Amino acid sequence: MSSRLATGGTSVFSGFTRLCKGLAVVLVVGSVIVQTFPPAVTYLTLIPARTIPFAWNLITAGYIEQSLVAMVASTFGLLFIGRLLEPIWGSKEFLKFIVVVNFLTSVCVFVTAIAFYYITRQESYLYTPLSGFHGVLSGFLVGIKQILPDQELSMSPQLKLKTKWMPSLLLLLAIVISFFTAEAASYLPTFIFGTYVSWIYLRYLQSHPETTLRGDPSDEFAFSTFFPSFLRPVIDPIASIFDRLLCGRSRVSDEADGYTLGSAPLPGSDPVEASRRRERGARALEERLASEKLSAGVNTEELSHRDAAEIV
């Protein structure tokens, strides 16, 4: 029985990339450091009142978990989601995504904490240690929404959830829980900014080595797709304003296939290429699932032969 469990488990806990395992070690070591040496929290986590002299905590805070539960959740999330996204994006782009999202999320959380202090004059906004990898984890869900928007997850025989709704449901759950616990409220800004920053990065900035295009301007990845359909007529005009302010992009005609400037398409404005990337992501997922099923089948066959040999 024990050998069977061990063999069956190898298909679930295998396939992790070297980069993901290395980053997982960073998360574990960071958590061990702050648990073993509590004063390290002052230097490694994001404490807004001390960020000016300790500016490096804008970088380190994203890799420090202050509790064992958070460390385990972040490590497993990184390993399991990373082994899906990294082969599709490439190791370099995957690491770049993590570094950029982590840093910009910390910057946004820092600015928000300072703003709330000046509004409320509550010093807790300045001296509460903030840290965690959950901003990047929420960003990973945005990446899955981009690549596999229509992939269904079976929560139960009666309940199926499409992956495109996972970032929105996570934020909704985080907002609801934040009304009941102060600890959850401290995580909320990281979830929100992690989701939004990752969407901006994937929408406008992510590079694709196989082409000269950047981002994903397809309608299926528009900001309004994070909201229910009845809200989209209200959100689309607002989102288009920020779209033009931040990126200088606008649609010049309903007949255009992408964003244009005069008669020339802007870089990254090919929706056909965006569709191809999603197809590649779907194929990569199917291939991974097929390989895991094949591996599980081989393991089952080997176990059957072993059991038969033991009986003989």
UniProtKB/TrEMBL annotation:
Key word Chloroplast present in the record?
no
Q: Which residue intervals make up region (Disordered)?
A: 260-312
- What is its membrane topology? Multi-pass membrane protein
Where is this protein primarily located?
Answer: membrane
- What Pfam families does the record point to? DUF1751
Alphabetical list of SUPFAM superfamilies matching this protein: Rhomboid-like (SSF144091)
Identify the InterPro entries for this entry.
Rhomboid-like_sf, TMEM115/Pdh1/Rbl19
List localization entries: Membrane
Q: Which residues cross the membrane?
A: 23-47, 67-85, 97-119, 125-144, 165-182
Position of the signal peptide: none
Q: Please list the residue ranges that the record marks as compositionally biased, kind Basic and acidic residues.
A: 273-291, 302-312
What does the entry give for GO biological process? retrograde vesicle-mediated transport, Golgi to endoplasmic reticulum
Q: Which UniProt keywords apply?
A: Membrane, Transmembrane, Transmembrane helix
Identify the GO cellular component terms for this protein. Golgi apparatus; membrane
PANTHER family, A to Z:
PLACENTAL PROTEIN 6, RHOMBOID-LIKE PROTEIN 19
The name on file for this protein is: Peptidase S54 rhomboid domain-containing protein
Q: Which organism is it from?
A: Aquilegia coerulea
